[in-house]
Amino acid sequence: xxxxxxxxxENVARLLITxxxxxxxxxxxxxxxxxxGANITDFDQHxxxxxxxxxxxxxxxxxxxxQQNLDSLRTTFSERVAAQYRMEWSLTPSSEKKRxxxxxxxxxxxxxxxxxxTMRGDLPAVIPMVISNHDDLRGEVERFGIPxxxxxxxxxxxxxxxxxxxxxxxxQADLVVLARYxxxxxxxxxxxxxxxxxxxxxxxxxxxxxxxxYQRAWERGVKLIxxxxxxxxxxxxxxxxxxxxxxxxxxxNSAEDLKRLGQDxxxxxxxxxxxxxxxxxxxxxxxxxxxxxx
Length: 294
Ligand SMILES: Nc1nc2c(c(=O)[nH]1)N[C@@H](CN(C=O)c1ccc(C(=O)N[C@@H](CCC(=O)O)C(=O)O)cc1)CN2
Prior knowledge:
Blueprint: E1 12-20, H1 25-35, E2 39-47, E3 54-62, H2 66-85, E4 88-93, E5 98-104, H3 109-119, E6 125-126, E7 130-132, H4 138-142, E8 148-150, H5 158-169, E9 175-178, H6 187-192, E10 197-201, H7 213-220, E11 224-231, E12 241-248, H8 255-278, E13 282-285, E14 288-291
Parallel strand pairs: 5-6, 5-7, 5-9, 7-8, 9-10
Antiparallel strand pairs: 1-3, 1-4, 2-3, 10-11, 11-12, 13-14
The structure holds the ligand Nc1nc2c(c(=O)[nH]1)N[C@@H](CN(C=O)c1ccc(C(=O)N[C@@H](CCC(=O)O)C(=O)O)cc1)CN2.
Domain ACT: 14-96
Function: Catalyzes the hydrolysis of 10-formyltetrahydrofolate (formyl-FH4) to formate and tetrahydrofolate (FH4).
GO molecular function: formyltetrahydrofolate deformylase activity
């Protein structure tokens, strides 16, 4: 069990919308919610600057009796508003916690950040399991009362390991977070969780894609190191970026210094990215994201 809980009002929901930009969208959505007795408490919109004419909206609303009326509200919205504007949309109660499975290798810094934040109720999630290709972190995970599954990845049998992982995850996870999981996932694995696998890459992408970015950054003599959290696609470290940050370094820092300094940035960046996803603040459009931050 994951003790602690994020206190969310049972009567609050989030509505995310993507559609072709056109007059009347906001009026149609707000009128629909008004007529159903809802009170809009937060609102943010964006119109694509890619000249492809896409409109993006995130709003939160309060509605007494939301839980009892959720299905009918979704059906009516779909029929009366979404169909008319050909919307891609989601309507999610704020009290709903997403199931966030974690995948790790040997590094524990971002893993511990997510475990600790979730256990103290700082992240609106439950962690059904941790999967790792190494057994090193079993004790740290099981101390939180979370199942730990060690699935070794033999060089030529990555597919068998992925099959076991997918079987464990099936029906148990809404989101998979690669918390420094150092295996490249196959297209089939990625396709099983489209836009629902989040990675933390330990560089300020697009610099230093791939393995050992800190060593390569040190050899390059960079003055900034960074971390990037992105959705995972089959193209390594090329997925839509959710969050990034950097830290200053100098000629006085060794490669080990860069790793140590970078790990704090990784923890901060992944936490912010995961929280945005869990709070339904991210819309993916092409290979970019719209992040409706507070
Ligand atoms: N399909 C994808 N899989 C993964 C992605 C991704 O963007 N798409 N991100 C990586 C994370 N990562 C850097 O952030 C990364 C992990 C692993 C490697 C790598 O070269 N791995 C080797 C094995 C290394 C080892 O055994 O220790 C490999 O898989 O052959 C590069 C970058 C996670 N997966």
